[in-house]
Amino acid sequence: MQNTTTSGTVLPNTTLPNIAAVPVESAAPIIETRDLSMHYGKRIAVNQLTLSVPRGAIYGFIGPNGAGKTSTMRILTTLMLPKSGQAFVAGYEVTKTPRDVRRAIGYMPDFFGVYDDMKVWEYLDFFAACYEIPERDRSGLINDLLQLVDLTDRRDDMVDKLSRGMKQRLCLARTLVHDPQVLILDEPASGLDPRARVEIRELMLELARMGKTIFFSSHILADVAEICSHIGIIESGQMVMQGSMDEIRRKLMPNREVVITLLDKVDEARQALSTVAGVQQVVDLPDDGGKKRLRADFTGEDTVLSAMMSVLNSQGVPVVNFAEQSHDLEEVFMKVTKGVVS
Amino acid sequence: MTAQSRRPFSGLLRANPVTLKELRGRMRGTRAFVVMTIYLLLMSGFALLLYVLYSAAVSGDGSIQGGQIGRTLFTGIVGVELFLVTFIVPAFTSVAITGEREKQTYDLLRTTLLSPRALVMGKLLSALSYIFLLLLAAVPLQSVAFLFGGVSEGELALAFVILLVTAIALGTIGLYFSSTMKRTQAASIATYGFALLITIGLPVILVVLFSVIAPFFLALSGTSLSAPVQAALTYGFGLLISTNPLATAYTSQYLLVNQHQIGFFTQVVSSSGVTLNLPLVSPWIVFTVFYLLLSAVLIVASIRRVGRIEGAP
Questions:
Q1: CB of B185 within 8 Å of any CB in chain A?
Q2: Rounded distance, CA A191 to CA B192, Å?
Q3: Which pTM does this prediction carry?
Q4: Which portions of chain B are predicted below pLDDT 50?
Q5: What is the DSSP letter of A80?
Q6: I need a surface site. Which of A326, B127, B138, B248 has the fewest CB within 10 A?
Q7: How is chain B split among helix, strand and coil, in percent rounded to 5?
Q8: Among A29, A41, A34, A42, which Cα is nearest to A75's?
Q9: A130 pLDDT band (50/70/90 cuts)?
Q10: Residue A60: phi, psi to the nearest 5?
Q11: Strand partners, A84
Q12: Helices (H) and strands (E) in chain B — how many of each?
């Protein structure tokens, strides 16, 4: 039996950060942009972008290459001024109080940005000093950070001796030296091997558990689906859709689908299913290795699912598989951006 | 706090994160010490060569003039140092900001609380402190000249000031080009171009001017120049001399040795009954003031450039 989870979510509850305690939706957003626009010459990079990231969220900012993700992040990190519109991070407007914004954010660009001629601890020590952390506090801080990213035994190695995955973890540790509220990570998993990708993902979840808001971009949708609490989809500089994972799913897939495989009694099954309240239509699917298959489209809660199961049972229909089709984010993404990407 | 008050000098260098980082990188391992050893060996070899050549030349007529050997050694060593400073300093500072851009660490630094001023000054301080170390390491070698006599402490100080000001000027010029240009290569070319202009270009211009203008004036006023023209020429050439480290060093030393003038003095020019008392100043003062002012302007410009945010009007 596959995909029998009835909630329709692909988020395993065990890996979800504990954000339920904070009334996420009602609190003021920690990152907010209003009609943000940016263009390079005639090319429009960001077009009237309005986004909102709730405090404590893991916000996946997804879109194809060149959609404007990096430009948006550069504005949020005070590296670039927008042509128009406003952007706020942790309550500070990025163009007016950049220093306060810098204090509140940890930024990891989509490249490593490491000094090869430095030791691992010196690298962190340097950035800690840049964040005005007193010298006497740095040693302990560096040890804590190295432990967090599992690089303790690499403390005295030169940075250029590290693997890509280790460098990426070191960079993540760097973003944390000043204990920022918000992490802005540009493509944190790009160019990493699968194992390193898993490690970065686990770290992001760990950081969310520590209370950090994580705003990260990606075009690798599998990563987004597994860890995000919220997503925003950007296309040609415009926000196509944003919200919590559940909201996005509801918006995109108002109909839920269940596929039923049976040995016999197809007509009885079709009849019985259409009597269940909430079921909109029942469609025949091609046979699968001699077994008959039906697809029932329905709206509503999980009670509809159990009603369907019990009605099939009472009719004595020989069901061998009963599975809700859960659409993954890849499909959502294709559906939303279809036709817009040239 | 206690660590800083116990080590006042290292505290100064440690206060700026960029200086600390740069010096850690530069002094790591054996490289920095190998460079310094080679530098001192080259200088010692050169001094020895000068000594051998010069003493062979003077021993021909049987009299050994210690003072002249001392002066020759001293001048030679300072000349080589000036040459080295001219070539080493631009290499250190023209990479300062563009290097961060090329390593893609520039954006990271700009999102920290590190101010543009701390970044620029940190880079300059770290480059200059290594140069300072090289200059300081050569002082004992220069002092060998004292064994032969003929060189005063004033000359030693003068040489040191001129070397240091040259280093600061070229350092800030490199830093300026590094902050305004995108690539290290372009910044290096621009900096070396500027360095060549002030070390070689200006003397060439000086010679050309002298050989063109002087005959012109001579032809104009007959056999001798009128007093005001002499005064104008004196000031004009004085200014030109003061833009060039070699000419400044040579002229200042000449004035110090032959006329015992190190600061302000007057020179009398007279022609056909007109006598003028020209208040003059030793070129090293004009040189120092001019290049320190230029450096200050360039530092401010570099800081402004580093502090500029992309997309600003």
A1: no
A2: 39
A3: 0.80
A4: 1-5, 62
A5: B
A6: A326
A7: 80, 5, 15
A8: A34
A9: very high
A10: -90, 120
A11: A37
A12: 14, 2
Angle, nearest 10°, between helix axes A120-130 and B17-26? Answer: 160
By C-alpha distance, the chain A residue nearest B111 is A102
Q: At residue A18, does pLDDT exceed 60? A: no
What was the pLDDT predicted at A254? Answer: 65
d(CA A93, CA B205): 55
DSSP reduced 3-state for A219: coil
3-state secondary structure A289-330: CCEEEEEEEECCCHHHHHHHHHHHHHCCCCEEEEEECCCCHH
- A118·B25 Cβ contact <8 A: yes
Longest dimension (CA), chain B: 75
pLDDT classification of A330: cutoffs 50, 70, 90: low
Query: Residue B108 and residue A113: Cβ atoms within 8 Å?
Result: yes
Answer for the pair A117, A158: CB distance below 8 angstroms, yes or no.
Answer: yes
Q: Given this model, what pLDDT does residue B251 score? A: 86
Sheet holding A238-244, edge to edge: A105-108, A182-186, A213-218, A58-62, A230-235, A238-244
pLDDT in tens, B94-133: 999 999 999 889 999 999 999 999 999 999 999 998 888 8
CB contact under 8 A, B113 and A126: no
A108, burial (CB in 10 Å: exposed 0-12, middle 13-18, buried 19+): buried
Residue A77 to residue B311: CA distance in whole angstroms: 13
Summarised one tens digit per residue, pLDDT across range A276-313 is 888 888 888 888 777 888 888 887 777 888 888 888 88
Closest CA–CA distance from residue B89 to any residue of chain A (Å): 20
In angstroms, the separation between the Cα of residue B187 and the nearest Cα of chain A is: 21
The verdict on a CB contact (< 8 Å) between A109 and B113 is no
Characterize A32-52 residue by residue with b for buried, 16 or more Cβ atoms within 10 angstroms of its Cβ, and e for exposed. Answer: bbeebbbbeeeebbbbebebb
The pLDDT > 90 percentage for chain A reads 44
Q: Kindly state whether B31 is in contact with chain A, defined as any CB-CB distance less than 8 angstroms.
A: no
DSSP B94: T
The first and second tokens of residue B229, run together, are: 């023209």
| Complex prediction ipTM | 0.83
Contacts of B45 (CB under 8 A, 6+ apart): none
pLDDT band at A9 (very low <50, low <70, confident <90, very high): very low
**Structure tokens, B185:** 């290569």
Indicate the helix (H) or strand (E) that contains B111.
Answer: helix B106-111
**Average confidence score pLDDT of chain B:** 84
Instruction: Supply B274's token pair.
Output: 């007109």
CA distances from B51 to A232, A250, A310, B141 (A): 77, 91, 109, 13
pLDDT bucket at A190, cuts 50 / 70 / 90: confident
